Amino acid sequence: MKIKLRIIVLGLVSLFLASCSNDSAEQSTAEVLENNKTYEWTMVTTWPKNFPGVGMAPENFSKMVDEMSNGRLKIKVYGSGELVQAFGVFDAVSLGTYQAGHGASYYWTGKVKSSQFFTAVPFGLTAQEMNGWIHYGGGKELWEEAYEPFNLIPFAGGNTGVQMAGWFKKEINSLEDIEGTKMRIPGVAGEVFTRAGGETVQLAGSDIFLALQQGVVDAAEWIGPYNDLTFGFHQVADFYYYPGWHEPGATLEIIINKDAYIELPSDLRAIVKYAARAVNQDMLDEYTANSYRALEELVEKHDIELRRLPEDVLIELRKISEDYMQEFIKGDEMATKIYNSYSKYREEVVNYHRISEKAYIEARELE
Ligand code: CA
Q1: How far from 116 is each of 208, 233, 249, 279, CA to CA, in Å?
Q2: Ligand 1 centroid to 186 CA: how many Å?
Q3: pLDDT 10s digits, 124-175
Q4: What is the CATH classification number for the domain harbouring 52?
Q5: Residues flanking ion ligand 1, Cβ below 5 Å
Q6: CA of 339 to the centre of ligand 1 (A)
Q7: pLDDT digits (tens, 9 = 90+) for 297-308
């Protein structure tokens, strides 16, 4: 009797083990199949193809993903106008026509007002501060919430650092000199410039040169020395003003269609996430190492006039910016929620940076 029971128990145990090993065999076959499956994505961007910095960030992202996934996720990158125009990127990825996009979120303020905060706000956060807010200050979660209705997952995808105030064909010595100045300056900053007495013109990056040359505008901002040198603005304007009050740490974005993202196995999803994080830092490093070299070339070789905006102009622009942001968020629940998070963080981080980054940079200059 005892022996018989033992046989039955042994039989059950081996049956159980057999079924277990069958399961794991099936699972590993599925895993092997999934691990061998390759995915091909298209990434549309708002930048000229292979443009230094901004245009190279999506190329580098694609390269990193390819390397880390051992070729299982291929992302083909297109410049603006190749498949869709720059300002069509958000819709194309939202609708799933293409799986991924690279651009600057503030291009979409007409659709998603709060997107302004994820690129730059006049007199707002620097690159280092932005990265802190997005990744450790609740910014990323708010960004995801804002893009949720559009079936998009956003990631920070690069940063230019502090930009330049722009190219001017005439000197700016006081607020009166802003009066009537026609300037290419986008978004919220453009509105601030208009309120300071200027006239704002909206132009894509590739149209700036001709507009300056033909006098359609008297001034234009693009990015900073690294990119401005490539476009050759020094050939059509003499005065190069700083600091970039309007874009103190412009963050770029990678957007992924949510359905395409969910379809990926978990390791590829992780690769997309961490490649975005890597390229976000990588682009800032590229600008840090190249901006001063380009500025040296502009000053020494091309003899441009490097000028600081007068203090009264900067103070007035800051006051107008603060008032205008209140007006900008009014009546928009998501924008108000993000503004509150952004402003609280800005106040706290600026208090700390006053005695850390700023104090150190000043100490380094003491004589
Ligand atoms: Ca700019």
Answers
A1: 22, 26, 13, 21
A2: 8
A3: 999 999 999 999 999 999 999 999 999 999 999 999 999 999 999 999 999 9
A4: 3.40.190.170
A5: 163, 247
A6: 21
A7: 999 999 999 999
